[in-house]
Design brief:
about 0% strand, 13 helices, about 75% helix, mainly alpha
Amino acid sequence: MIEYFILQYKLTNRKFKDFGLKPIFGYLIILTFFFASSIYIFSKTEFAQYAFVLISLVLTSKLSEIGRNDFLRMCFNSKQYRLLRVVENLITSLPFLIFLVYKQCFGSPILLFVFSVLLSFGNFKTTFIFVVPTPFYQKPFEFIVGFRNTFFIFLIAYILTFISISVNNFSLGIFSLTLVFLTIFGFFLTPENEYYVWSFAMTSKQFLLQKIKTALFFSTILCMPIFIALCIFYYINIEALLALYTLGLFFMATIILVKYSAYPDEINLKEAILIASSIGFPPMLFATIPYFYKKSLRQLEKYLK
C-alpha cells in the first residue's frame, strides 16, 4: 500500500516540474497560501472553524469518486483498500486539523476527524447518475465542466454571504465574492483538446472575443446573487464592491488570454508570476493584457484561419 502513496507523491512532484517549479518550492507556496488565507478567514469571522470543517469535508468527499474507488478495489484487497481510504482521507484533512488545534478550537478537530474517517467507509455506488443542471448549455466546455465539478463551492460562497449579512461582517461578504471569482478562474486552467479549438469557424480575434464575452456573461450570472445582496445590505460600500467586481472581470479576461498564450500547453511559471504580479498591482493589467493578447493570437493562428 505504501507504493500507492509514493506514486501519488511522485505524480504531484511531476506536476510541479511541468509547471516550471521545483517541488520543494511548490509545497512551500501551497503551505504559505493555506496558512495566510486561514489566518485571514479566522480574523474576519467567528464561524471560521465551521467553514474549515465544511471545506475539508468537501475536499475529502472528492476522494470518494465512484470510478476512482472501483479501480482501487481492483488493485488492493478489502483490508488494504479500507486502510488506504482512511489514511488518504486523514492526510487530506490534516492541514485543517492542525490549524484548528493551533487556533485552540478543540471540538471542531474531533468532529472533523470522526467525519473524515466515516467518509472513507461510505458506499457511494448508486444505480443512477445525478447530473447537476447548469444554465450554460449553449456555450460548452469551461463553464459546464467547471460548474459541475465545483458547484459545492458556490453553495459555500452563497451561505457565507448569508452569514456575512446576518452578522454584519462586510469582509466575509467580500471573501465570498472573491471565492466565486477565484473558482471561475480555475475553469480556464485546463486547456481543451486541440480539435475543439480547430472546430470553430472563426479567426483568432473572433475566437478570443467570443471566449471573453461568454466568460464575462456567465461570471456575472454566478456573481450576481452575492453582488446584489451585498449592494443592498452594504450600500455604503457600493464603490468598493463595484471596484472588486470590475477587477474580477478584468482578471477573468486576462486569465483567458494567458491560457491561450500558452496553448496547447498549460500555464507555466512565467505566466503565473505575471498573473500574481497583476493581482498584487492591478495597474500592471494595462501592460499584461496587450502582451498576452498578441501572444494568444500567434498561438491560435496555428488552429484557426
